[in-house]
Write a structure and sequence with these properties.
By secondary structure, the chain is an alpha/beta fold. The chain has 2 domains: 92 residues, Urease, subunit C, domain 1; 306 residues, Alpha-Beta Barrel (TIM Barrel), CATH 3.20.20. It has 12 helices and 18 strands. Strands 1, 2, 3, 4, 5, 6, 16, 17 and 18 form a 9-stranded mixed beta sheet that branches. The radius of gyration is 21 Å and the shape is globular.
Length: 437
């Protein structure tokens, strides 16, 4: 496997003999994609048969999928402050290996991303060290305490693509309503973690299985109460709102009613909640301790159906790296979270291979839709768009060895899992930044 920092002048590249999928245009055909000068010049059938453009490198994709690079809308990157868990550089290399060309990082760093200077630091640091595009979300409230709004206008001007308090809910309804109202005036997106802090704090999903394991539970109502409240606030303020990671049937019912009412509400589901359920905790494996917790199999199946129907708009990695000391503890004492950037796509392909979701729909939730919500010029192969592209063999099998991951942290629930689907190349702004060999 080879990684490379982008060169200044990308060489023209003709990706030939491919299955081209462009969710932004509903396209799925056998053809070619021509990249030059850092943009997509054309994506159509028969480009290669007309002759190789002058100076272009020809890549025979042999039927592999060529699609827009993924846009991961929810990832914790430790820098600044928690570089022992992850840096912008290490996260970007993990992203490139997973076909992610745009990574959106969360504000729960040290210092937190609640001042324009921190946004500027992340953007400058990413330009110097990262091989993919990295965009920060800024905090909704100062120090993520839920008490006082940040200067959203200045933060957006500095480069923040959305606003969130990470894994904390804004419990003060007045503060969140003001944030939604203020954000509406400059079309900013509020991304909110739906978890009532007075009901959370348990180890896993509340229910019979938690009782059998002797673990404390988090009720689904901890999620739905906040989501119900937020829907009311959106109805008042009419600001754009995105539920960060829904996990259960009851929340999907609330979401469906909100969308039917025409409210500007969208939602994500994490790949972990689409692939696992509470029964996976049976061996007390702390890699399955997540926040929000894994729910029942009925909830998992409902989330998958919501992806297929379009009720859930985005699938995220919810990348939350933890070190060995944070995970090799009794389950109730271990830190929640899983590393997931590099496994996002092959895990999502599990659902495609099972026939639960078609490939075009899944790629839309992983690329086109998050790019649209964040206002990023990504997630598309239309001519003139940035040449952020991946080449994927969706049928290549492998067993995940955590030691092979490029992330600094290896706390993956897919340790030893049989997966299918390898990224062969990742291209950012026309430069090959990852190649599988």
């Amino acid at each position: 496997m080879r990684d490379a920092r982008p060169s200044v002048e990308p060489r023209p590249l003709l990706l030939a003999n491919a299955r081209v999928i462009d969710p932004s245009r509903g396209a799925d055909f056998r053809g070619d994609v021509f990249l030059a000068e850092g943009v997509v010049k054309d994506a159509a059938a028969g480009i290669a048969s007309a002759g190789i453009p002058d100076g272009a490198e020809l890549v025979d994709c042999k039927g592999a999928v060529v699609a827009p690079g993924l846009v991961d809308m929810r990832a914790f990157v430790g820098e600044p402050g928690f570089e022992h868990l992850e840096t912008l550089a290490s996260a970007s290399h993990a992203a490139a290996a997973g076909g992610v060309t745009t990574l959106v990082c969360q504000p729960d760093t040290a210092p937190m991303v609640d001042e324009p200077a921190i946004v500027d630091f992340i953007l400058r640091r990413a330009r110097d060290t990262a091989v993919v595009h990295i965009h920060p979300m800024a905090a909704i409230t100062k120090a993520r305490k839920g008490e006082e709004m940040t200067e959203m206008g200045l933060l957006k001007a500095a480069g923040a693509v959305a606003f969130t308090d990470g894994h904390r809910s804004v419990m003060n309804a007045r503060v969140l309503r003001r944030a939604l109202t203020y954000a509406r005036d400059f079309d900013a997106l509020i991304v909110h973690h739906t978890e009532d802090s007075t009901l959370s704090g348990g180890d896993m999903n509340q229910g019979e299985f938690a009782s059998r394991l002797g673990l404390s539970g988090v009720p689904k109502s901890a999620e739905t109460i906040i989501l119900e409240r937020d829907v009311r606030l959106v109805g008042d303020a009419r600001g754009r709102y995105h539920a960060a990671a829904l996990t259960c049937i009851e929340s999907l019912e609330v979401l469906a009613r909100a969308k039917e009412a025409g409210l500007p509400i969208t939602a994500s589901a994490s790949i972990n909640h689409l692939c696992f359920n509470e029964l996976d905790i049976a061996g007390y494996r702390t890699y399955f301790k997540l926040r929000p917790p894994l729910r029942t199999e009925d909830d998992r199946q409902a989330l998958i159906r919501a992806i297929g129907s379009g009720l859930i708009d985005v699938v995220v990695s919810d990348h939350t790296p933890q070190d060995v000391e944070g995970k090799r503890l009794p389950f109730s004492e271990a830190e929640p979270g899983a590393a997931g950037i590099e496994t996002l796509l092959p895990a999502a392909l599990r659902l495609v291979h099972a026939g639960a979701v078609d490939l075009g729909t899944m790629l839309a939730t992983l690329s086109t839709r998050p790019a649209q919500l964040l206002g990023l010029d990504a997630g598309t192969l239309r001519p003139g768009a940035p040449a952020d592209v991946m080449v994927l063999d969706p049928d290549m099998p492998f067993v995940l060895d955590p030691a092979s991951l490029k992330s600094r942290s290896r706390n993956t629930p897919f340790d030893g899992a049989r997966l299918m689907g390898r990224v062969l190349r990742t291209i950012v702004a026309g430069n090959v930044v990852y190649e599988y060999a």
